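Ticket #4471: structure export looks truncated?
Reporter: QA, pipeline team
Priority: medium

Steps to reproduce: submit the single chain below to the structure queue and open the exported record.
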Amino acid sequence: MEEVENPLEDILKKHYQKNVQFLINGEEFKAGKFLLYRLTTYANNYYVEFHIKREKKIDIIKIPYPFTVEHHEVDNLLYFDYRIVTLCKKNKEMVAKLNNVCQNYPERMQSKFFERILEIQFT
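Actual output as written to the record:
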C-alpha cells in the first residue's frame, strides 16, 4: 500500500519543541511545549493528537481533523477550519441543508470546534 503525503505533517514538523497555544474565539484552552503529534483514527473519526508538555505533566490533546488547514509560516500561525461553509465550498444550498441537520443535534453532542476556526500559535 502506497503512503499518501499529508502537507499537515510537514507543517507540524517545522514547529517541534516550540511553545504552542490553542485558541478558539480568541480564548486559550490549552498551551505548553509542542513535543509530538500523531495522525490517528478513533471511532471512525480522524484526529490530530498533540502531545504538549505543561508544568508538571504531558497532555495529549485530540483535535478532529479539520475541513481545511491554513498555514501562515511567517507568523507561526496555523488555522484549522471547521465551518460548514468551508466544507461545502460556499454551496449555499448544501450549507443550508447541513445547518438544518446540525440544528437537530443537542449541543452536548456537538464538538467545541463545530462552526469555528481553531487558531494554533507557535512561539
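Status: closed, not a bug. The export was complete when the record was re-opened. Leaving a note from the reviewer for reference: The helical segments are 7-13, 84-87, 92-103.
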